[in-house]
Amino acid sequence: MTEQPIWAAIAAALRAEIAEGARRPGDRLPTEAQLADRFGVNRHTVRRGLAALADEGLVRSRRGAGVYVAPRSTDYQLGRRVRFHRNIEAAGRLPEKRFTLIETRPARPVEAAALGLDETETVVASDGISLSDGSPIALFTSIFPTDRLPGMADALARVHSVTEALRLCGVPDYVRTSTRISGVTADAAQAARLEIRPGAALIHSESINVDTTGRPIEYGQTFFVGERVTLTLDHS
Amino acid sequence: MTEQPIWAAIAAALRAEIAEGARRPGDRLPTEAQLADRFGVNRHTVRRGLAALADEGLVRSRRGAGVYVAPRSTDYQLGRRVRFHRNIEAAGRLPEKRFTLIETRPARPVEAAALGLDETETVVASDGISLSDGSPIALFTSIFPTDRLPGMADALARVHSVTEALRLCGVPDYVRTSTRISGVTADAAQAARLEIRPGAALIHSESINVDTTGRPIEYGQTFFVGERVTLTLDHS
User: Fold this and answer.
1) Do B234 and A178 touch (CB under 8 A)?
2) Which of residues 185-214 of A touch B (CB under 8 A)?
3) Which of A78, A109, A181 comes nearest B203 by C-beta?
4) Radius of gyration from C-alpha coordinates of chain A
5) Whole-angstrom Cα distance, residue A114 to residue A178?
6) Alpha-carbon distance B165 to nearest alpha carbon in chain A (angstroms)
7) Which of A94, A138, A211, A215 has a CA that sits 20 to 30 A from residue B190's CA?
8) What percentage of chain A exceeds 90 in pLDDT?
9) Which of A108, A184, A234 sits opposite B178 (nearest CB)?
């Protein structure tokens, strides 16, 4: 058996401290000089160990401010069936969806196009925030066609879950047909709601869900916090 | 037939000017006052027309700096077969991949794990930049197992295409098994290479491709420019 290089041993020691919770997300690691002292090596060796941890996404360096334990990101699976509560639970976290607005109003052009509606038709528009283990991970807007889903506004207000509300409105199942993903930075209002700094990276996703007959029943836009969520795709 | 509201007519006129190329990505639109004057309406009506265009992603407002024609984003399809050149061509753009580094070196832990290698094995590591119609859209790192792909470093240097280089190394076809997507902001070095401002949003993707026997043959990390690329997923 080959002996572990010293930098790898340092990485392994810090990795174990993070895994055990002795160092938590957001904690600052000791300086390179302190770590060199602790392990009895030079700073070059410490730096190589830290670089390995950064490669794994376990730590992040902020220029001039040291090295921090990276936030634990929540995996969020995208595929033919995307269900918020189930997804967050599958990642071992506690899901919560808070609706901040539910209103019925005329469809906007982009919404009418996505849902295949006439522009004279109305939609149920809902806004809110998604949380994972109590930490805000996304702002969402979900748009539903009023005519196809009578009672949807009341149902959403009652059950705080899109899947449950759709079931109450006679849609027992639905599937996603498309997702479009781009990257943007948070403006001041988004940052305040998501408890991140303005300018932080957001993943913007736009999606369409259809019922079992293929009729669009939800057009969604979501802004995920880039460092708190990893969208995962299984292509197999 | 119902008559079009005035705000919708204003949006349609500006949409046509953008579509015809009279207003190009990055161009600043006339001010609200100028547009109100041109169309003979009040500023409230102009604002509603501009809001519709912003909803469609055609224009963007920068606080205190007016309204601009949004950059034309390149659609990039993710799925079981992801091919850079084919993807960019499918979006009606000219693809180009420039390799800035091709080297053979020991596998890093995260690479060894992704490719199912022993940490004593070596990989061919390549770095580069992807362009669409001459505009930088992504920085990529592609890692290949040396043992499974003899001659890969030379092939990459010769053909500047992963798909072609793999074919030359005896891999006629490959499929993607997984993609992981998160959001980050560009550091100074990334920003300079991508010709964007430091702090601009990047989409970070991590992916694994396998050959037809299921053996991993490429581990990729890509940083897409958020405002120049839209990752698209077709779940049907």
Assistant:
1) yes
2) 185, 199-204
3) A181
4) 22
5) 11
6) 23
7) A138
8) 72
9) A234
- Token pair for residue A169? 């409105």
Integer-rounded Cα radius of gyration of chain B: 22
Nearest residue of chain B to residue A56 (CA atoms)? B110
* Cβ-Cβ contacts under 8 Å, B203 against chain A: 181-183, 203
Question: Are A109 and B181 in contact (CB < 8 Å)?
Answer: no
Beta carbons of B181 and A55 less than 8 Å apart:
no
The answer, yes or no, to whether ipTM is higher than 0.95 is no
Domain ranges in chain A are: 6-69, 74-233
Contacts of residue A217, defined as CB under 8 A and 6 or more positions apart, other chains included, come to A115, A144, A145, A148, A149, A166, A171, A174, A209, A210, A211
Question: DSSP character for A27?
Answer: P
Query: Strand B59-62 to strand B216-225: parallel, antiparallel, or no bridges (unpaired)?
Result: unpaired
Question: What class has domain B6-69?
Answer: mainly alpha
pLDDT tens, chain B, 236 aa long: 457 789 989 999 999 998 888 888 888 999 999 999 999 999 999 999 998 888 777 888 876 778 989 877 899 999 888 899 999 999 999 999 999 999 999 998 889 999 999 878 999 999 999 999 888 999 999 999 999 999 999 999 999 999 999 999 999 999 999 999 999 999 999 999 999 999 999 999 999 999 999 999 999 999 999 989 999 998 87
Q: Average the pLDDT over A28-57 and give the result.
A: 90
For the segment A99-116, what is each residue's pLDDT rounded down to a tens digit? 999 999 999 888 999 999
Note the CATH architecture for domain B74-233.
Answer: 3-Layer(aba) Sandwich (3.40)
Report how far residue A208's alpha carbon sits from residue A217's, in angstroms, rounded to the nearest whole number. 8
- Asked whether the beta carbons of residue A183 and residue B226 sit closer than 8 angstroms, the reply is yes
Spatial separation of the C-alpha atoms in residues B12 and A110, rounded to whole Å: 13
Which of A184, A93, A108 lies closest to B200 in space, CA to CA?
A184
Nearest CA in chain A to B61: A187
Nearest CA in chain B to A230: B182
Q: Would you call B56 an interface residue with chain A, using a CB distance cutoff of 8 Å?
A: yes
Query: What's the first-to-final CA gap in chain A, in angstroms?
Result: 36
